[in-house]
Design a protein that fits this description.
- The structure is a homodimer of 313-residue chains.
- Chain A is α/β, with parallel strands linked by helices and 313 residues long.
- Chain A has a single domain, classed as TIM Barrel (Alpha-Beta Barrel).
- In chain A, 43% of the residues lie in helices and 14% in strands.
- Chain A has twelve helices and eight strands.
- In chain A, helix 8 links the parallel strand 6 and strand 7.
- In chain A, helix 6 packs parallel to helix 7 and helix 10 runs antiparallel to helix 11.
Amino acid sequence: MQEQLATEDIVANVKVYEVGPRDGLQNEATFISTEDKLKLIHALLDANLPLVEMTSFVHPRWIPALADADQIAHAFVGSEQSQRVSALVPNARGLDRALNAECKEIAVFMSASETHNQRNINKTKAETYLAFEPVFKACHEKNIKVRAYVSVVWGCPYEGQVSPNASIEVCQRLLDMGAYEVSLGDTIGIGNPQQTKKILDAMSKHISLDKLAMHMHDTWGRALANCLAGLEMGIRTFDASIGGLGGCPYAPGASGNLATEDLVSMLHEMGYHTGISWPKLIKAGRIAQDLIGRPLPSRALQAALASQKNLDC
Amino acid sequence: MQEQLATEDIVANVKVYEVGPRDGLQNEATFISTEDKLKLIHALLDANLPLVEMTSFVHPRWIPALADADQIAHAFVGSEQSQRVSALVPNARGLDRALNAECKEIAVFMSASETHNQRNINKTKAETYLAFEPVFKACHEKNIKVRAYVSVVWGCPYEGQVSPNASIEVCQRLLDMGAYEVSLGDTIGIGNPQQTKKILDAMSKHISLDKLAMHMHDTWGRALANCLAGLEMGIRTFDASIGGLGGCPYAPGASGNLATEDLVSMLHEMGYHTGISWPKLIKAGRIAQDLIGRPLPSRALQAALASQKNLDC
């Protein structure tokens, strides 16, 4: 259905950062076995997602769904794919586990608002920077890439509005400390495209947009519209979760992750290049859905599976 | 969460045209009683949707779900709300039924592509214009407003690409015949925002955009992103279906209607004025969901119901 694109429409590559095995599964009630998680991660790598966040080294007390983080990470030690998997590191103990599993890339996180930061990681923002210092130092010494998430950029459940200046300050600190990229999170999915443009416009005066990614939640159905606004402003990296994992629309409080298939489908139709194989992405989506055992929220996954079904008839 | 808007952000009104009771219910497997349909229509009117497409005068053999079209339409005869309800009229017999029910507004439909038009209404486009002539004439004489739908503007399941020129020609003919507005349909939900801008740019050279509406399907998750592109181009009327009625994401072949709540939520957050009451819209969405008996696909409805539930706890 894609119209022939004129030369001026052939646009730069867009990077899709897959968070399903971590951000998705940590919000799913179903426990997925280590073997099945690895099957999903390999399907995502096989679909050519450039980077897959495979797990989180959080204490299993907090996220039992990811209690097998060490086994997951160790499965990639010495593997060709080790550069393409990442793990979330919440603290010094998490860093030790990541180092032990020879991770080549980790992600750290904090919040743009003081209250969300305190409620979520039990530290002030100032204390968080201090706690990050040895993490960045160790990673720098061992040549481990560090990605940083900044939560509640579009709005905070405790403080309401979050000024772009607060987010800018956090992003600059994290980039200065050595993060190669900062992913801006719309944690409660409240963002709208006009706001997205305002935030990015303010940010672009201080930070090069190629250092920023967007991590939008589809809680209110606006994730893709927000990504479109981000694309128009020049953002070229977007986080997404296979099938919309972790975003069951019927579970109160679910995070409502943007589905990778919905994002990639739109990007490809618009003529962007992601390097991702569409048929293999749908295969990964089908695997995710089979593991969870119910239809996942991704519209594009359901449409693709329905058309395959129609073709099979 | 909405930031204070600067004066330049206070934008013109946007009209949301509610198609749930017709386009939604005709695609739902569950038969809803006449009484319940009227309850839903009244809830939508009460939420201040400016116009509600209440039913279709199609032969009940084709759409048994709307077999009670006459009863529905007759319920509004002489009512204060009669100017705010509309009915789809597929042919001369349908027009007779609409006249009999003293409808103040009707809608007609045809396709931008020749093949889809023939498959869908068993006439060539030229024959369709001829068949429309007496319909427009009768409506003109009786001061009945006529809205027109043009299907497959973003792509045809039989012909693939549809040139904007083909759509422009159909729109111009329908406006010349007396339609007050033409609603452009992305029947198979394949449109992307870049394509939307190209189509509307081409159209705007021949047709005033205030004569056009967009009717986007969410089959691939892109309805809202396409509406955003339309908004940016100057479109100010959008069709939507309460709860996403008719768009069960897990039913192969379902039309995937854009949910009214998702659209209105985004518009309000962006500072647009629709005149619609958000709490009453959610009430209507809850009624629709209760009638269908399963969670409807609207993200914003589910998020709103979940936050109500959390507040109740």
